[in-house]
Design brief:
Layout: H1 16-35, E1 39-40, E2 46-48, H2 50-56, E3 66-68, E4 74-77, H3 82-92, E5 100-104, E6 107-109, E7 121-130, H4 136-151, E8 159-165, H5 166-175, H6 180-191, H7 193-196, H8 198-207, H9 212-222, H10 227-236, H11 249-261, E9 268-270, E10 284-290, E11 299-303, H12 307-310, E12 318-324, H13 325-334, E13 347-351, H14 361-364, H15 370-381, E14 386-388, H16 395-404, E15 409-413, E16 422-427, E17 433-437
Parallel strand pairs: 1-5, 8-9, 13-14, 13-15
Antiparallel strand pairs: 2-4, 3-4, 5-7, 6-7, 7-12, 8-10, 10-11, 11-12, 15-16, 16-17
Helix pairs in contact: 1-4
Amino acid sequence: MSEPIQGPKGTRDFYPEDMGVQNHIFDCWRKVCRAFGYEEYEGPTFENLELYTGKSGAEIVGQLYHFKDKGDRDLALRPELTPTLARMVNQKGSGLRKPLKWFSIPRLYRYERMQRGRLREFFQLNMDIVGCDTWAAEIDLISAVIEMMKEFGLGEKDFSIRISSRQVLSEFLEGLGVPEDKRASVYSALDKRAKIGEAEFCRLLEKEGLIKRNIDAVETFFNCKTWEDLEKRLDQFKPPGGWSSAIGADALKWILERLGDLGYQNFIKLDLSVVRGLACYTGIVFGVYDNAGNMRAIAGGGRYDNLLQNLGGQPVSGVGFGMGDVVLADLLKEKGLLPEGRQGVDYYLADVLTPADVASAEDLFGLPQKELLHLAQVLRAKGRSVSYSLEVGKLKRQLAEANDQNACKVIFFGSDKAPIGSFEVKDLSSGEQKVVGESEL
């Protein structure tokens, strides 16, 4: 015999018990999104390649599953959904009443080196607000993230949201004399800072023209953990034109204060080392991290006010974030917060009739009795989930199947303890067994 064919690297098989976990995550995501007034949308699994190179540059191609179709068009499996969102909004233009509050749970694909928390195929919650220029959008999204994590059973000891500002960082670099055309490369280096080590980090900054004094200033800037510390640094390295209040320091301060007013002060932290590597971010950026520091970011996002225009649309603002299912599931498993076992059914119908009781063709071939099938149909019409053995055998085997299917109750169909029109029922969790009428089931 040949060896069984294996699944592609970086993908997962979802057996029924695994789908129970996935559905739990999806259900919590959808519950909170809808509670905050977001509408669900979807897009195609593959897009024109230029949609991604237009957002992230040509270097993104190495991280994509891309191909040519039969019409010689360059396509790619979607690595993220924000470009699709931008394309969809651009296509409708003024036909969409803004601001939009949309969410989606797409399956995404990235050709990357596999490691803990990162696969090549995964699901991700996307929440976005399009067409809102005020900082209330950031408040709404960050509040939704916190409530979502709480919905999973996580608390302030388990996670925190680290908040920063790309605009503040940009103006800080301007104060250091870093030209605007060099800042995207500096952002990329800053985003890798925690992964590559101090020596390599300094080498990358030197490559972009930063001298040691300025590199030290960046380190000091990143180590600001309170607003008071940050203010001192802002005064020290004020850019020539002064600080912007549109999406810079004032926005960062206001958002931190408002989140504190909402009672989220123990969930949020000022962390200027949060940069987010994508060039599309223009203002507030944030990441969600486990407090133990054992995992990759659980979620991340920020304001991207130029993306829709860069992809051919009108200048419309956007704020959004993505939360992957892989890291989240790892954290929930570590905390013992994932559901266990397979999805159960309300009733399992155990056929206790034998050929001696009913001489029928069904009995002789081990098939369910037609009356049992009718009862299952009646119960399902009442909104109950029902299962039974497709190959009726010994009662012991049927009860084992009921346990395996995680049934709540077993109805002993044909029990001599139940008069006509009633049924003997056993609650598998409590062990209670009683006779009830059909209307009581």
